[in-house]
Amino acid sequence: MSETKETGVPAGADTPAGEELPSRDLSPDEEKAPKTVGGSNLSLGHSLGLILALAALVVLGVVTGGDRFLSVANLMVILQQAAVIGVICIGVTFVITSGGIDLSVGSVMGLATVWATTLGTQAIAMDVHWSMMFFTALAVGAAAGLLNGVIIAYGRVVPFIATLAMLVAARGFAELISGRQTQIVTVPGFTSTFRGDLLGIPIIVWMFLIVAAAGWFLLNRTTFGRRTIAVGGNPEAARLAGIKVKRHLVMVYALSGLCAGIAAVMMLSRTTSGSSTHGLLYELDAIAAVVVGGTLLAGGRGTIFGTVLGVMVFAVLRNVFVQNNLDSSVQALVTGAIIVGAVLLQQRFSSHSRT
Amino acid sequence: MRGIIKHFPGAKALDGVDLDIRAGEVHCLLGQNGAGKSTLIKVLSGAHQPTEGEILWKGERVTIPTTMAALRLGIATMYQELDVVDGLSVAENVFLGHELSSGGVLRRATALERTRDLLRRLGHPEIPAQREVGRLPAAGKQIVSMARALSHDAQLIIMDEPSAVLDPEEVENLFRVVRALRDEGVAVVYISHRLEEIRRIGDRITVLKDGRTAATSLEVEDTPTRELIALMTGHEVISDFGGTAIGATSDQPLLEVDGLSLDGVFEPVSFDVRPGEVVGLAGLVGAGRSEILETIYGARRATAGEVRVKGKKLRRGSIADAVNHGVGLAPEERKSQGLLLDEPIYRNITLSTFARFARSGLLNERAERTAAREQAEALHLSPADVQRSIRTLSGGNQQKAMLARWLVHGCDVLLLDEPTRGVDVGARAEIYGLVRELSRQGTAVLMVSSEIEEVLGLADRVLVVADGRVVHTGATRDIDEHQVLDLVMEGAHG
Questions:
Q1: Which residues numbered 178-207 in A keep a CB inside 8 Å of some CB on B?
Q2: B255-493, what's its fold?
Q3: Is the Cβ of B299 closer than 8 Å to some Cβ of chain A?
Q4: A349 within a domain of the structure (yes/no)
Q5: Is the pLDDT of residue A170 over 70?
Q6: What percentage of chain A exceeds 90 in pLDDT?
Q7: Residue A161: which residues within 8 A CB-CB, separation 6 or more?
Q8: Which residues form the domain of A102?
């Protein structure tokens, strides 16, 4: 809050001045507020709306569910449910920021759970180490993402179509491998590691937090993130500035696949099974959460913080409905309303900040 | 004769503007970027509402609440960004928004017929009314836009920089159409940066500066160019091109282009540029000038030949290789090819260099801002606050930011594609001065410009390109504007 005010004042005072002298006088002060630079003013304003929406949902949960809603156990349930889709959303945030879309995340996650739980993989994991399952899931996800990226960047297939094809194909491949059977995780080391707690917080929630923090850092503080924003904002300008756009896009989709692989590990630990039906329609939930969070669907602007908030809004909403035994159809209806409402709000904010 | 008078004192971006337009005249609107021309047009076309002031149309006071209302009055606008729908046919575009229909069913035959009438009236019966507009050249699209204006029975047509997307030959055509319209009694408001055009087509001129009318309804014939520039800028431009060319500071060429060609676009071309030298590529739009520049830069993959910088061969089709060897390009279309409009100024300036400021992938935004600020101050970027969005800058200042990008990069070879397009007179002089300064420091500059005057004034040597071939190479002091024009025309037809 205080940060928004700090940057709001000099920016406002600067506008009418316009002349060269006053802005030069300001220049030493500019160093004071480097953190809010680069369009994050906008996302802070927008995030404020999301935080309010989240708070409203929590109040609703407390009013209807009372202590049961606020209990630590229930909060952990919410966080665990948010964690899997949340990790996927971090990857999707990068893809959307780069101006693309990834429809394949859900089915790639499903494929990764299946591949990591085949008898062969589990046998190797038994012999060598449980982490073989972990790395298998990650590798499958990253490879699928890499393939998406190559088809999009070098094959010049539009992302919507390329990842739609991957959505269908990965699901089919997962069915083929598993024979449409649910495969139980039998490696004891795997389950005991990922189903555990650390400081009272489930491991998969930690994983979500770490991926989100790493994602934030990658997007806002590294050359990789800057390139992603540049490519999404104006691919031609990025290309003519010397950025290797194609190579970068491949990496962005690989990153999204990698996130789906991490999500697969989390899914395996929550359900202790691999199945081709895991992650059904996750792509739509992910896109909804990312866009509601304030990432521009057209590319060029992304916010990890907003994505996390978007994920939490939907997770809390779902929990409130479950706690009160409400119809899931009504939940879907409300979800739709939230998506439209949030995007309308986002447009208001962005038009205000621009004029 | 009907008099059309409009006053808008007190609008925000407009601070007291008076304009009166007579039927059957070409009234030119002049002003630097940000002088309020666009706002004025938007008020006239119903897109904006004036806060104060009044509009008189044929002697009666009117309000123009919507663009449709403007059209109903007979005021049509042709925007700078051609507002045609590429996927629709010529006829569909002409009647877009006021489709001819009976009971919801389109009357296609009537629309086609009336479109053909309009095209004939505009002197372009050769444009097929059923052709998809996306397949027409820019000049054709403009005719469609004009036909649309006429389809509303427009008595006043506002043209916002109609010549910006046209090459000289097409501009001639445009002038013919504008004159024909004028002779029919249509009033035309013509907006352009190019003074020589206004001199040729305009009857009267109104000059805007900082949202006010600096001078209104000057007779074109009685007003010297110098006075116009003075009115626009508030000060007289003393030296057009920042003195004469510096000349090569060394005989060792920095940039060598050897037999470079791109099949179907331009034939093998060979030349070199030495340090401190400015070489200009003159010719028509579409003659292959920009393509030569882009191929040198690696944005297009050459079919044959090679490019060497300081003797080192560049990899074909690799922009990254060119940039690494110290080549920079300021592209023709600043907004679509050069800038990230939602990003702050400094990130646009460091778009090619942010990785250099970074340490093992970690950005150093502080260093980026410092470097960007230094250049912004050196170039008198206004506003100089590099954290503001680049969107807020005028065309001239955006171009300066583009140049700042390559100054931060410290490049040895600078490729400039139409460096002063859409740039007002004041910023132009600064850009010319900057080119001079770079030459003094030993940078090799290769520039493309549609303005022959600019090439001749700025460059040491000129390459005339026509129809994908270099038809003349020589020192600029040995050739004048008319000779260049002759070469351009001969080459284009030969």
A1: none
A2: Rossmann fold (3.40.50)
A3: yes
A4: no
A5: yes
A6: 38
A7: none
A8: 81-321+328-334
